[in-house]
Specification:
The chain has 13 helices and 14 strands. About 40% of the residues lie in helices and about 15% in strands. The strands form two sheets. The chain has an eight-stranded mixed beta sheet with strand order 3-4-2-1-5-6-7-8, sandwiched between helices. Strands 11-10-9-12-13-14 form a six-stranded parallel beta sheet, sandwiched between helices. Helix 1 crosses helix 13 (about 355-370), helix 6 packs across helix 11 (about 320-330) and helix 9 crosses helix 12.
Length: about 375
């Protein structure tokens, strides 16, 4: 039996972000096929005490819940647990910074996989020290991990060029998306929103994700359609404060905070337009899910976004609020344009982003590392 541990995330159930969603979707499928999957969960983010979830075992451990230490402190504790409790043959870390844990596995015969989505040190949310640490993590990942999973092609080219990563040490595996949208709209009714009657943003309230660009851009767009912002962040408090101040100046902007489960699915499935104003990121699971539910997407033109979406999205120059204003003005007066891009988005996801395929490709990685492929 293959034994795989998933670490470096907040845990499952996936109520937090893209990596958590990926682990839940992949882990559920692998567990159903007989793979022993254990997921390391952070105590302060654990919504349940259950020892099992959708066929996966949960190990709940503490962390230091601060911006810089939450992930790495939990990953170190999880790695020590793995080292001395021998709970897996393959340890799969999600996120570059977790490569700092690799020396703790030295001599254990466990295989280490790291999923990376790009040069994290280039993201606006990190300060100088964190950027240096993330660069060190990248070097450790390239030298000491047994295998790398990279979720977008621009990052593959970057790591080939800057770090000399050989073809034998990595593979491209993107995220997946659900293409079966909910039919109910009761959550929208409770929020006093109409199907196809709002613009939607989903993401952490940090500079990388660009929610301020959207709010700034919409200030100069006419009409009454509300902008719904789903997400929050326990970190970046000054950015978050400024964002809420800007939102409060426009009565059309609604800050919902975190939304989970069926209400979240209904919000994503029924937007008029989904806006993805990234400054920096890899392949976004939230973006793919919006496309999978047949949304028209207006996105920044980051190479990582274009590589993921092809011609399915309407783009604007990354970081340029005036360019986003122009594109939002276009879609609000052109329903036919919106319908065309809904069809393109759904077709793209059906062709490229199946969770079943993503899970199968991860299993091949684990089997090959263990000599079972």
């Amino acid at each position: 039996m293959i034994r795989v541990a998933q670490a470096g995330i907040r845990g499952v159930p996936a109520n937090f972000g893209g990596s958590e969603t990926a682990v839940e979707e992949i882990g559920t499928r692998l567990a159903a096929e007989g793979v022993d999957v254990v997921v390391y969960c952070r105590r302060h983010k654990s919504p349940t005490d259950a020892v099992e979830y959708r066929g996966m075992r949960r190990v709940v451990l503490p962390s230091i819940p601060s911006f810089h230490l939450d992930t790495i402190s939990h990953s170190v504790i999880a790695t020590l647990h793995l080292r001395f409790r021998n709970t897996a043959d393959v340890v799969h870390y999600h996120g570059m910074g977790n490569a700092l844990c690799l020396p703790l596995l030295a001599g254990s015969r466990k295989k280490a996989v790291i999923t990376i989505d790009g040069p994290d040190w280039e993201r606006p949310k990190w300060g100088p020290l964190a950027r240096r640490v993330l660069r060190l993590s990248a070097r450790l990942a390239v030298r000491q991990a047994d295998y790398l999973v990279i979720d977008n092609h621009p990052s593959i080219e970057y790591f080939r060029r800057e770090f000399g990563v050989p073809e034998s040490k990595f593979t491209y595996i993107a995220y997946g998306a659900d293409t079966d949208p909910p039919s109910a709209t009761d959550a929208l009714t409770e929020l006093e929103l109409a199907p196809r009657g709002y613009i939607l943003f989903v993401g952490a309230l940090v500079p990388d994700k660009g929610p301020d660009i959207l709010i700034d851009a919409y200030r100069n767009v006419g009409g009454e359609m509300p902008v719904v912002v789903v997400g929050d962040s326990p970190f970046a408090p000054e950015f978050r404060r400024r964002l809420h101040e800007a939102a409060s100046a426009d009565p059309r902007v609604r800050m919902l905070g975190y939304v989970y489960g069926e209400a979240y699915r209904q919000l994503v499935a029924n937007a008029y337009v989904y806006v993805h104003p990234l400054r920096s990121d890899g392949t976004s699971p939230a973006l793919l899910q919006a496309m999978g539910y047949g949304n028209c997407v207006v996105s920044s033109d980051l190479p990582e976004v274009i590589a993921a979406t092809g011609n399915a999205t309407i783009t604007f120059a990354s970081g340029d609020a005036s360019a986003l204003t122009q594109q939002l003005g276009r879609v609000l007066v052109d329903p036919e344009l919106v319908e065309r891009h809904r069809a393109l988005a759904l077709a793209r996801v059906r062709a490229e982003y199946s969770w079943d395929d993503v899970a199968a490709r991860h299993r091949v990685v684990y089997e090959n590392l263990l000599g079972e492929g």
